[in-house]
Amino acid sequence: MKRKAKSALDPRALLAMIGTGRTTRDCRKNQMIFTQGDRADVVFFVERGKVKLTVLSQQGKQAVIGILGPGSFFGEGCLAGQP
Which residues pair with 45 in a beta bridge? Predict the structure, then answer.
């Protein structure tokens, strides 16, 4: 019988460890947090509410690529040196 693997990352424990480097910010509904092409230098954690991730095609059409809820991270590409 296989056991379900536990997540190796506890978001709340990670945020507690980061401590002094952490800042919080409240965002309004439909507020843009950052835009496609911005330099990635911050990791975001969704504490409450939802975040919609979108991209623009070359034709200017918007596509939803994800909807994140509480406990989710985004922007973590900056940790791997992604622009």
Answer: 73
